[in-house]
Structure formats: structure tokens, C-alpha cells
Design the sequence.
């Protein structure tokens, strides 16, 4: 199983409600993934103030992070610590690697924070303070683990490139082969999780110059297995499904927002859903919406 | 006068229990389904149930005798394993609509997605729009009527179900072939369209069925195993 929700706002007046809407959506897919959850939010001024580099970390408290990273501000969200600083993103990442070598980086970029944890997704959303979050885009995932352990690190989204996030419902069959190939090309991995391979693959393609459409088309060609993916970047929101398309997905679109979810009930909570265009993404067709 | 149930106030389990209890109302109207799963499942009597909105998975599953109408879209597996009666979806249906159905009529006014009528065992399914890939996969009996287009691998590994398509077929699955449309087929198609409240002309459809080459193991394929 696993549940996916995502919301890409077009109407700025809804931005103060991003976290509230994402929380309501997440609450509708708890049964699909009751063991852990995670979200990525784009544009919240408390978690990711404009112009500052942001890293999301596991395995460190805010006090430890601020002590180790002079000038940085750390915000607690359950077991995740979000750190922002007035530095280029690469410099903040280097400072983290240097001063806090034991921590796990679960997201980096500008304008984006990743929050992950284990346990009931509704309780986690509360612990994250998700309902109070604002911004223009958010993705969420509730996990029923099949391929690796139930840990905060194993929760989705997988964010391995600047501002990029991938959430996955399904399982990749040939992830070990692709992981080996990417390692041979110098890509580093943090876990044995199959979804991480998808995220690294997309990030690697983007780094090589592909646009998001092309990167996801290449993923369809290369990956075997079951997947419905929601992929977000600093300006985009994309959905793709495998050829068999047995993992569910629904997209709803209005002038005010684009939303994607595993099931309709997660879309029903959105304002204006009664007039939305609702459709199922076609197999192996890449859908991208840009800001 | 219909018995009104609002799913904002009443849990689905209570609704279904009420629909299963003998001697209850004959006519029901369900409000605010909001994508809930298993709405109006397992009915055994000839009730009339109108559901005002979109439903989630397995709506009207295992239906016997009842007429269940969804005034909205239906999620995965609408009318799965239905035995008799009529299930109508006024909007679109998600994957595996009418899966393993034994009898009765499933009428979908809009599109149905992948695997519509998978392993159908006698149910009749009439889809006003398109169907997705692998529809009628391993269909054993019954009729699938598609007024729009069919996706890839239509009728893959088909047994004896009959398929009628008005629009294009993206590709046929293993052992599914086009067959001659004879008078008896035009007659049964006309009946099915009428039962589904549709006015398409049976003469515009093509018929597909099993070539029956997969029924027995071919010794030529021995080296493949």
C-alpha cells in the first residue's frame, strides 16, 4: 500500500492554508500507510526563510545543531531538526558534514523543508505542527514498509537533490542493479531502500541536464516494478505511473490548485473539489505542472 | 419516500448493516459518501439505493438483486464479484470495475480505467466511454460492451466472455481476436445497450472473443519451461 498526497497551489490566497489542507489530506490516507510518514513543504517562512539555505536533519537536537553550526537557526519538528543559515546550500551541507558527521541529511535546498518520523501519520502531523505551516506546495506520504525497515530515514519523501522530493507507492524490482550502476558513476546512497534509488536516479538525470519530463521518462524506461510517483522540485509538481498502473493515483485540478492523491477521499477535503477536473493519470505518461 | 442516510453522521458499517437487515426499507438515498470504501456492499434483496456523490473502493461489491446507482465517480473495484441486480455509475469508474462478477448488469456512463471486467464470470458490463488496458483479462463468461475506445491488451487470455467495442482498440491481448458479428450478436448487443439506457447503434460495434488456442498446453512450447 502506502498513501500519497500532494498539493500545488496556484492561488496565493490559499498559501496560509497549505499545512491545514495537507494535514487533512494526510489524515485520509492513514490506513494506506500506518507505520510512518513524512512531508515536504515549500515556502514556509519559519522552516525555510527566503534567501537562506535549509537542511533537514535526523539524529541531532536543535540545541546540538545550533551549537555545532554557528549562525544557524534550528527548528524542531518531532525527530526532525530543520536548520537554516545565511549561506549557499553547498556550504551549509559541507558545514553539517564537517561538524555533525553522524547525522542524516533528509533534505536540502532553499524554500523547502522535509519532515519525517515513525508512528501514526495523524499524530506525526500534529508533532510536526503541520497544520500551521504555510507555503505554495506540499507533498506527503504514509508508509506501509515492504522493502526496508520502519525508521525515520526510511520514511518518504526521499529528497536527495536541492529542493527535489520523490514519494513512491509501490516497489522497484531492479533497484539493486540500478543502485550498483549509479554507484559506479559516483552517486552515493544513504540506505538500501528501493525508493531512494528512484530519487537518486531522477536527481542524477536532472544533474546531467535532463528536464523533469525527460528524467521521469528515463525512469520509466529503466525501472522495473510497481510505482506511482509524485516528484516535486523548487518549481514543479510531477506525477508518473508504471505501465501496469495498479498503484492508485488521482489528480484533481482547479484554477486555484493542482492536487494528487492515492484516493479520492484525500481530495474531497479540498476547497472547490466539487468543480475540479478529476482524472486518473495514464500509465507511463509524465504529467508536470510548473509554478 | 427514500430512507435517508448521511455518511457524515452514520458510519459505513452501520449503513451496510441496515441494508442487510431483513424487513427494512426498500428505497435508500445515501448522502456525502466522500470517497468512502465499501458503500452498499453485500446487499441481498431487491433494494433501490441511490448514492449522491463519489465513492471509494468496492462500492456495491457482491451485490445481489439490488439496483445501486452512484451519482458520481467510483473507485477501485466497483461492483466486484456482483451476482445479480444492477449497478450504475453515472460518472467514471477506476480500475477493476466489475472484477470477477458472476451476473447482473454493471452500467458505467463515463470511462472505466484499467482491467475493467478482469476475470468476469458472467456479469454484463456496459461502459459509455473508454476502458483502460487489460480489460476483460481472463474473462470467463459474460459480455463487455465498450461504447468508446479500448486500451492495450484487450481481452488478454480470454476464455468465453464476449466483447463489443464501438471505437478503436489500441491492441488485442494474447489469444483475443476479432470475430464475425452475426445477427444473434447484434440482437444481444441491442438488449445490453437498452438495459444500460444507451442509444448507440449495434451495427457500429465490432465483436472480439477468444481464439481458444490457450486452452490446452502445446507440446511445441515444452522447451520454454
Sequence:
Amino acid at each position: 500500500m502506502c498513501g500519497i498526497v500532494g498539493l500545488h497551489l496556484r492561488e496565493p490566497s490559499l498559501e496560509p492554508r497549505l499545512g491545514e489542507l495537507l494535514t487533512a489530506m494526510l489524515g485520509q490516507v492513514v490506513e494506506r500507510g500506518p507505520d510512518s510518514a513524512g512531508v515536504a513543504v515549500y515556502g514556509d517562512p519559519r522552516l525555510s526563510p527566503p534567501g537562506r539555505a535549509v537542511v533537514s536533519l535526523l539524529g541531532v537536537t536543535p540545541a546540538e545543531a545550533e551549537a555545532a553550526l554557528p549562525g544557524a537557526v534550528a527548528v524542531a519538528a518531532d525527530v526532525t531538526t530543520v536548520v537554516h543559515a545565511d549561506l549557499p546550500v553547498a556550504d551549509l551541507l559541507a558545514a553539517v558534514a564537517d561538524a555533525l558527521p553522524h547525522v542524516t541529511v533528509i533534505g536540502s535546498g532553499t524554500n523547502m523543508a522535509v519532515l519525517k518520523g515513525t508512528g501514526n501519520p495523524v499524530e506525526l502531523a500534529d508533532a510536526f505542527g503541520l497544520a500551521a505551516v504555510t507555503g505554495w506546495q506540499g507533498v506527503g506520504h504514509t508508509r506501509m514498509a515492504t522493502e526496508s525497515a520502519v525508521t525515520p530515514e526510511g520514511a518518504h519523501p526521499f529528497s536527495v537533490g536541492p529542493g527535489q522530493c520523490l514519494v513512491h507507492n509501490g516497489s522497484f524490482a531492479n533497484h539493486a542493479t540500478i543502485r550498483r550502476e549509479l554507484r559506479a558513476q559516483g552517486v552515493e546512497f544513504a540506505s538500501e531502500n528501493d525508493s531512494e534509488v528512484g530519487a537518486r536516479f531522477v536527481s542524477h538525470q536532472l544533474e546531467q541536464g535532463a528536464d523533469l519530463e525527460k528524467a521521469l521518462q528515463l525512469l520509466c524506461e529503466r525501472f522495473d516494478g510497481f510505482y506511482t510517483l509524485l516528484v516535486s522540485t523548487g518549481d514543479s509538481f510531477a506525477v508518473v505511473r508504471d505501465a501496469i498502473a495498479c498503484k492508485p493515483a488521482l489528480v484533481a485540478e482547479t484554477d486555484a490548485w493542482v492536487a494528487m492523491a492515492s484516493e479520492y477521499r484525500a481530495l474531497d477535503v479540498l476547497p472547490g473539489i466539487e468543480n475540479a477536473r478529476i482524472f486518473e493519470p495514464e500509465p507511463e505518461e509524465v504529467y508536470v505542472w510548473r509554478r | 419516500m427514500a430512507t435517508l442516510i448521511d455518511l457524515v453522521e452514520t458510519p459505513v458499517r452501520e449503513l451496510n448493516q441496515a441494508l442487510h437487515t431483513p424487513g427494512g426499507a426498500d428505497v435508500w438515498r445515501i448522502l456525502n459518501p466522500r470517497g468512502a470504501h465499501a458503500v452498499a456492499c453485500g446487499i441481498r434483496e431487491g433494494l433501490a439505493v441511490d448514492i449522491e456523490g463519489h465513492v471509494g473502493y468496492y462500492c456495491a461489491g457482491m451485490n445481489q438483486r439490488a439496483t445501486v446507482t452512484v451519482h458520481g465517480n467510483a473507485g477501485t473495484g466497483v461492483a466486484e464479484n456482483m451476482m445479480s441486480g444492477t449497478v450504475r455509475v453515472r460518472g467514471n469508474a477506476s480500475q477493476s470495475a466489475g472484477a470477477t462478477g458472476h451476473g447482473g448488469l454493471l452500467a458505467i456512463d463515463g470511462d472505466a480505467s484499467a482491467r475493467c471486467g478482469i476475470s468476469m464470470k458472467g456479469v454484463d458490463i456496459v461502459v459509455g466511454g473508454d476502458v483502460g488496458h487489460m480489460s476483460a483479462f481472463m474473462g470467463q463468461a459474460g459480455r463487455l460492451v465498450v461504447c468508446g475506445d479500448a486500451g492495450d491488451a484487450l481481452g488478454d487470455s480470454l476464455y468465453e466472455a464476449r466483447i463489443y467495442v464501438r471505437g478503436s482498440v489500441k491492441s488485442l491481448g494474447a489469444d483475443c481476436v476479432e470475430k464475425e458479428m452475426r445477427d444473434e450478436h447484434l440482437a444481444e448487443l441491442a438488449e445490453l445497450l437498452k438495459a444500460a439506457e444507451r442509444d448507440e447503434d449495434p451495427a457500429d460495434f465490432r465483436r472480439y472473443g477468444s481464439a481458444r488456442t490457450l486452452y490446452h498446453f502445446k507440446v511445441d512450447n515444452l522447451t520454454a519451461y
Remarks:
- The first strand of chain A starts at residue 3 and ends at 9.
- Residues 50-110 of chain A form one domain.
- The radius of gyration of chain A is 17 Å.
- The first helix of chain A runs from residue 18 to 27.
